[in-house]
Write a structure and sequence with these properties.
Blueprint lengths: L1 E5 L3 H12 L3 E5 L5 H9 L12 E3 L2 H6 L3 E4 L6 H8 L9 E4 L12 H9 L4 E6 L4 H4 L5 E7 L2 H11 L4 E6 L2 H24 L5 H18 L16 H6 L4 H11 L9 H14 L5 H10 L5 H9 L8
Parallel strand pairs: 1-2, 1-4, 2-3, 4-5, 5-6, 7-8
Antiparallel strand pairs: 6-7
Helix pairs in contact: 4-5, 8-9, 8-11, 8-12, 12-13, 13-14
């Protein structure tokens, strides 16, 4: 099968590597002049992996979209809407399957990424999401994991799972698109909180963070019309080990470095998601104590350690 990957950052390049590994004909696209694309064109590798030369590289968006049956999009969540405005102008998109491989919510609106996709591309286009735990560094060493594919169209879900299931990644069918998207986005928020606890020397509170974080976010999923049990699946709780504890997690590292006053230069999608969740808590009138605490730290510049202590020493209440 012909597969195109749009976005040649860490995850996009891995997805091209993976799709090629399981036998697909793969083209990887990057913006003209991007540092990531130029580095790959020069040496066919980045700091995470060596890309097989059977993967084609290009900056021609029209060509890469026209040539593929399945198109994977792996860019920053906050860049998605503007990127789709360009993508939507290309011809012959109706029969193609698009897979969104990023985790986030639109900061200003709180909208899920499939909502953004359908607003810009049209409601009739086929779209799914690819979510769940796993780090490039582990996958390229042959360490397997489980992930989830979700879509509003069950045939899209089944087709994508069939195309990408392997001994390295076992896929499950996602049954709740709202819960999967919110869960995947918000695990990055909990990753930032976990990093802050690490940086402040409160790592033992990460157990409480895991328990209360899942409980808190189940309420917003239910309010939005999703299944609150989805938060305990692969897209959220299943991704906690890779996000709350792993040294490879950008979001966890961002939180730790923030507390320690160390500059952080990589992308931490959870920051924009904190802003989106703050907006959703207002829209749906749902209390999100952990998310609101992070908002106070990141956007109102309150003192980190005090906010974290106050958060976990809230007035006594029943657990459930």
């Amino acid at each position: 099968m012909k597969v195109s990957v749009l976005g040649c950052g860490r995850w996009g390049t891995f997805l091209a590597w993976y799709a090629n590994r399981i036998g697909h004909e793969v083209t990887l696209w990057g913006r003209s002049g991007s540092k990531n694309l130029m580095a790959l064109q020069a040496e066919y590798k980045n700091e995470y992996l060596v890309l097989p030369e059977t993967v084609s590289l290009t900056d021609d968006l029209g060509m890469v979209v026209a040539s593929a049956q399945i198109i994977i999009i792996s860019i920053s969540a906050q860049q998605l809407r503007n990127f789709l405005k360009t993508l939507s102008k290309l011809p012959n998109l109706d029969e193609k399957i698009f897979i969104l491989c990023m985790k986030g919510l639109e900061a200003g609106t709180g909208k899920r990424l499939t909502q953004v996709f359908k607003e810009e591309m049209g409601s009739g286009r086929h779209v799914g999401v690819w979510l769940g735990p796993g780090h490039v560094q582990d996958f390229t060493r042959g360490i397997p994991n489980c992930m989830v594919i979700g879509s509003d169209e069950i045939q899209v879900t089944k087709q994508v799972v069939k195309a990408f299931n392997s001994d390295l990644i076992r896929f499950y069918y996602g049954q709740d698109l709202i819960g999967n998207e919110i869960g995947a986005a918000t695990k990055n928020v909990m990753g930032i909180a976990a990093g802050m606890l690490d940086g402040a020397g409160y790592s033992s509170l990460k157990g409480a963070l895991m328990a209360r974080g899942t409980r808190e976010l189940s309420r917003i999923i239910r309010a939005m019309g999703g299944n609150d049990l989805t938060i305990y699946g692969l897209s959220h709780l299943g991704d906690y080990e890779a996000t709350l504890f792993s040294p490879h997690s950008n979001n966890r590292r961002f939180g730790e470095d923030l507390v320690k006053g160390i500059p952080f230069t990589k992308l931490a999608e959870g920051v924009a998601t904190v802003e989106a969740l703050h907006r959703l808590s207002e829209i749906y009138d749902v209390e999100l104590p952990i998310c609101n605490a992070l908002y106070a730290i990141l956007f109102e510049h309150q003192e980190t350690s005090q906010v974290l202590v106050d958060l976990f020493l809230r007035p006594v209440k029943f657990e459930f």
